[in-house]
Specification:
The structure is a single chain. The chain has 3 helices and 15 strands. The two termini are about 15 Å apart. The model has no long low-confidence stretch (mean pLDDT about 95). This is Acetoacetate decarboxylase. InterPro entries: ADC_dom_sf (IPR023375). It comes from Gordonia soli NBRC 108243.
Length: about 220
Amino acid sequence: MWSVAESRSDREEWPVSPEAPWPATVRATLWWHRSTPDAQALLMTDERSIPLTVAMMVDYVDSPVGPYREVLASPALLAPGRRFGPLPRLQVPFIAVDSERSVHGGRSHWSLPKVLAEFTGDVTDRSTAVTEHWSVTAAVRAVPLPLPIAGGIGFAQPISRPDASPQFLCAYARLVGSFRPARVSVAAEGPTLPSWLSPGDHPGIVITSGRMTTGRGTLR
């Protein structure tokens, strides 16, 4: 499974999770910055890309596997086009959660390389995800006025094939809720994260409340 070192795991057995779609109530902080050369080098595709790294801390208040928290990052975005549709898509080599059943769901249903991590804090204020090998901290300064949000985000995970170029497992998550513009101060440690998940102060948004549904994956 395609991933950076922070999301590799030798464990193969996980508690089974329900099939998609997955509806959930969420709170989250998202941020973005220009991709570094190391970030661009991580992409597993010859398709056009947008040099923008996107990351997020998410609190799933409820979901088909119960409440859990998550951190993920996409080193760059795949550009819209005939293969991936009209919206940019994430490619996610780094993702961690604090739910074993969510690890199963990510790896089995969407080819997302989820691993386990410990989380502290509030994802809409200051939060940290940590293991013995890496950590990510995000501290938020948000505008007080909430605004409505409706839309979605897609991802396209590479599925390696030994005799051909990769296929991609693609899915889409739809969200309705409210958000606040924000600045997010980020720190990251680990084998690869500091080279592509840039530390410092970045633009972002805080999703103060939202209802999200992640659909089934399809091969492209």
